[in-house]
Design a protein that fits this description.
Layout lengths: L2 H13 L2 H10 L4 E6 L1 E14 L6 E14 H9 L4 E11 L3 H7 L4 E12 L2 E7 L5 E7 L7 H14 L5 E6 L7 H10 L3 E5 L19 E5 H8 L6 H12 L3 E5 L5 E5 L2 E5 L12 H15 L5 H13 L11 H33 L2 H16 L3 E5 L2 H18 L8 E4 L4 H10 L7 H7 L5 E6 L5 H12 L3 E6 L4 H6 L2 E4 L5 H24 L4 H12 L1
Length: 549
């Protein structure tokens, strides 16, 4: 996972967690959806290429097997049916090789259908020949009659739609340009639909004759880059320029542009929202745009956050391209599984980044300074001086931890013990000084009570600039005792004040505090115990257990 993609996912996860996403997807179930458009029967014929024929300039292949999928508006209906409970599809078949039984059987149980028949026509069928070993498409044969429907059929369809459309919350049109949807059908749809989502596709059969601008008032549209270029008549401009042009010439204010490997761009009320592609596991791109259009139409109708739309669009696309053609639909369960995987991978990447940050900070830590720190503590110990520690927040916790390790860990088993006081552990004293004088004086005022020659003062501050730590170290320095700064980031003021600094050179508070805790509380304690030859805690624990037994 690249750093830019991980940053994008972190941004999404900060705004939309998995529970919220599931709730949104559950809420869109309430929508009542009417779907209108062209049927396409997708035939996938899998073959093994042999090579060029000896006598003719053509490719020869061995037949392997074939599969038939419900494509076009059927695929859209099946995608929708996993997210919405009430779905009806209005479509057109031919009277020749009509595939009606296959069509009805291929639709999910909650998809009702109204099927019109176009005379002297086959049901539109596209037969692709696929290299079964590599999954590459070799060529395609199309069976269709894309002549306009006759007036009688047009009247029948318009009359039906006039009564039916008003019953639905959302009308989705998949216009594949194969002779079904004409101007009068568009007019009645736009007049009657409460919310209209449209996808007008450019393909080899309608190239140059099927633009999104044939619609006038859709609520939402989806298109790819070639389709927006055709619609604007602009071959060379970048997508943001094309979006502005389309909005200017059409007045469309809510549309999605799929960008292939570059993800998607979503335009809503004058602003463009973009999202990167989330999957490189591509089996087949056929039908991916239909899947994205299907789900995003529902979310757009539901009024989802514009930043949410590109993310879900890329998730739907990631699921769709892993499926061969329209063999399966994108279901709510598959989508949630995909999103969960993206979130998990991002979280694991964040963990890896964090561990890498710790490793880098440890690598850059001056080991000589750590050794000097040990010598300072040993000298203070030998001179029977007291070691004072203090800090705020997490640094205060580390200061307390280190004091504990000196009193109990490093001292255990020794006749001569370490003397150590953590100044942020006396809560009543802290509160009294903060209340009566200033919080900036909570450490310096305590030092005035205790400090004597031969002592050691250790100030902990991630930033290096905490005022109360700065003032206490300045006082100790003027009093002539040794001072140590434990700091992160650029070291801050305390690095300049102290006689010695343990400096975690990283601009990250959590990692800086981790280094302080690892080095000061654990590494230094272990070195001290080795130097003094006292018994490690685990050996003491083992002996105590043996005696008890």
């Amino acid at each position: 996972m690249g750093s830019n993609l991980n940053e994008y996912l972190k941004s999404i996860m900060s705004k939309f967690n998995l529970i919220q996403i599931k709730e949104i997807l559950s809420n869109i179930e309430k929508l009542n959806v009417l779907i209108i458009g062209d049927i396409i029967i997708d035939e996938y014929c899998f073959v093994d290429p042999r090579g060029g024929a000896i006598k003719d300039p053509m490719l020869t292949v061995d037949y392997f097997n074939e599969e038939i999928y419900a494509g076009g508006i059927l695929a859209i209906a099946n995608h929708i049916s996993s997210f919405a409970k009430e779905v009806k599809v209005v479509t057109l078949i031919g009277d020749q090789m009509n595939y009606k039984d296959h069509i009805i059987n291929s639709l999910n149980e909650n998809v009702k259908q109204k099927i019109f028949v176009k005379t002297n026509s086959p049901t539109t069928r596209k037969r692709r020949y696929i290299n079964q070993l590599r999954g590459e498409k070799i060529f395609m044969v199309e069976y269709l009659n894309d002549l306009p429907i006759n007036q009688e059929l047009e009247t029948e369809i318009v009359d039906f739609l006039e009564q039916e459309i008003q019953l639905y919350d959302l009308v989705i049109v998949g216009d594949f340009g194969h002779g079904f949807i004409n101007e009068k059908i568009i007019k009645i749809i736009e007049e009657k639909a409460k919310y209209l989502a449209v996808n007008v596709q450019t393909n080899s059969a309608n190239l140059g004759f099927n633009y999104v601008t044939k619609y006038h008032s859709p609520s939402f549209l989806s298109m790819d880059v070639p389709e927006i270029k055709f619609a604007t008549g602009d071959k060379h401009s970048e997508v943001p320029v094309l979006i502005d042009k389309l909005q200017l010439i059409s007045g469309f204010n809510n549309f999605l542009v799929t960008l292939g490997r570059r993800g998607v761009a979503y335009f809503k009320d004058g602003k463009i929202y973009q999202g990167p592609v989330l999957s490189t596991n591509v089996t087949d791109i056929v039908g991916a745009g239909d899947a994205v259009f299907s789900v995003i139409s529902l979310l757009s109708c539901f009024g989802c956050d514009p930043e949410f739309i590109p993310f879900i669009a890329n998730c739907v696309g990631g699921v769709a391209v892993s499926i061969m053609g329209n063999k399966e639909s994108v279901t709510k369960e598959k989508l949630i599984e995909f999103i969960s995987k993206q979130f998990k991978e991002s979280e694991e990447e964040n963990i890896n980044d964090y561990f890498s940050g710790i490793h880098s900070a440890l690598e850059n830590l001056n080991k000589g300074d750590v050794n000097s720190f040990v010598k300072l503590i040993l000298k203070t110990y030998q001179n029977q001086g007291t070691i004072y520690t203090f800090g705020n927040g997490g640094s205060g916790a580390t200061a307390s931890h280190f004091c504990c390790d000196l009193i109990q860990g490093a001292s255990r088993g020794l006749e001569k013990r370490f003397r150590s006081i953590c100044l942020n552990d006396n809560t009543p004293a802290l509160l009294a000084i903060a209340n009566d004088i200033s919080y900036d004086d909570v450490f310096i005022e305590q030092l005035k009570n205790f400090l004597k020659p031969g002592d050691l003062v250790i100030g902990f501050s991630g930033s290096g600039n905490s005022n109360n730590v700065v003032k206490a170290l300045e006082y100790a320095k003027k009093a002539g005792v040794k001072t140590l700064a434990v700091c992160g980031f650029k070291g801050g003021k305390i690095k300049e004040i102290a006689d010695l600094a343990i400096h975690a050179k990283i601009d990250d508070m959590e990692i800086a505090e981790d280094i302080h805790s690892l080095i000061v509380s654990h590494c230094v304690k272990r070195v001290l115990m080795q130097e003094l030859g006292n018994i490690p805690p685990e050996e003491i624990s083992l002996k105590q257990t043996t005696l008890t037994d």
